[in-house]
Amino acid sequence: MSIEEEKDKAAVVRQGFEDACREFSSRVSAFRFERTKKHLWTRVQSHWVDFVHFHRNGKSYGAPITFSIDIRIHWGVRILNDSFPDLHLNGPYSDPNRLRSGHYHLRFNARSGSTYDRFIEDLSRFFVEQCEPWFNQFASVESLLKRPDSPLNDDEKRFLTEAVDGNPTGKNLALSLKELGIKSK
User: Fold this and answer.
1) For 72-102, what is each residue's pLDDT tens digit?
2) Rg of the Cα trace of the chain?
3) What is the bridge-based pairing of β-strands 34-37 and 48-57?
4) Which of 150, 83, 67, 152 is nearest to 115 (CA)?
5) Torsion sign, CA atoms 90, 47, 21, 32
6) Is 0.90 topped by the overall pTM?
7) For residue 11, how many other CB atoms are within 10 A of its CB?
8) Could you tell me if 146 and 164 are in contact, meaning their C-beta atoms sit under 8 angstroms apart?
9) Which residues on neighbouring strands pair with residue 107, listed in sequence order?
C-alpha cells in the first residue's frame, strides 16, 4: 500500500472514530457525562469524577491496520484529591465475556459504514447496562470507602478521606482536573 493510501486510510478511520465519539457524547449527556478529552468522558461528583475512556484496537504505531474500528471501553473513578500523575483505570472494561453476555457489537467498518448503526446502539446499550449500574454501586463516599469490591486502592481511599475531612490538596486537585481534561470545578 502506498503512503498516500495509508494516509487516506488513517483519515477515514480517524473520521469514523470521531463520528462515533460525537454520537456517544450526545447519548451520554443525559447522564451528565461530558467529553473532556479526545477519548474521555467525565461526570463530576462531590469529591471524585466518574469517567469512561475509549481505546481503539487495531492500530500499529498509531496508524490503523484496517478500516475496522474496534473499541474497548474502560470506566472508573478518579478521586480529585489523588496525586497519581496519570489516569488510573481502576474500574472494569469491555472484556470479551461482557461483550458476549450482552451480545454487544463494538466495532464497525469506517470505510463502508458496515454495522455502524448497530455499533452506536450497542455502545449506548453497553453504557446503560454495564457502566451506569457500576457507577451507581459506587455513588457515595461510604460505598467507595467501605465496600469490599471498591475500585479504590488504599492511597485513593486516603485521598478521598482527606478531601471529605476538608483537607484536600490544591496541587492534587489541579493535577486531577488536568488529567481528566476538566477546565474548572
Assistant:
1) 999 999 999 999 999 989 999 998 887 788 8
2) 18
3) unpaired
4) 67
5) positive
6) yes
7) 12
8) no
9) 70
